[in-house]
Amino acid sequence: MIDHVKKGKKSRRLGKEFEVEVRKDLEKQGWIVSKWSNQIKDGKIVPAKGQYNPFFKRIVGEGSGFPDFICFRKSQFPISAEIYHELLQDSNGEMPFYEVIGVESKMKGKLDKIEKEKCAVYFMNKTFSKILIASKCAEGVKYEEFKWIGMVSV
Q1: For 86-101, what is each residue's pLDDT tens digit?
Q2: Burial track 29-56 (b if 16+ CB lie within 10 A, e otherwise)
Q3: Where are the domains positioned within the chain?
Q4: Predicted confidence (pLDDT) per residue in 76-86, tens digit
Q5: How far apart are alpha carbons 98 and 91 in whole angstroms?
Q6: Cα separation of 91 and 69, whole Å?
Q7: Is residue 143 scored above 90 in pLDDT?
């Protein structure tokens, strides 16, 4: 007989451990990483709320945002000196070149239908330049970019 309580505890523990592994890997790649504490509700970005757990008799919700992380770093894309100076003048001398991405940690690398719809809202709002799905593989962590065209994810 399957003990669903033990299975759930193990699954949550492994998921949290994988999130830590993903975060360390992203930081090693030069990203500045922070937990994303927002959620999509009725097509809008809103603060994520914790859920009441009657077993623990308290609100639990750490990490309830989607996606798991917001990451940013100075952009790596090459540009010509002419375009650089033009952009620099438009920004009053400040460096405007940052890449901002969302990263969702999924052990098996698969988003469900609701998560895909949330990604679409982020793309429509231009919240992230891309969303990466981190999954576990033999080498450690593998990243796959979420592709979205119109209302169809690829």
Answers
A1: 666 665 655 557 789 9
A2: eebebeebebebeeeebeebeeeeeeee
A3: 4-153
A4: 655 666 666 66
A5: 13
A6: 27
A7: yes
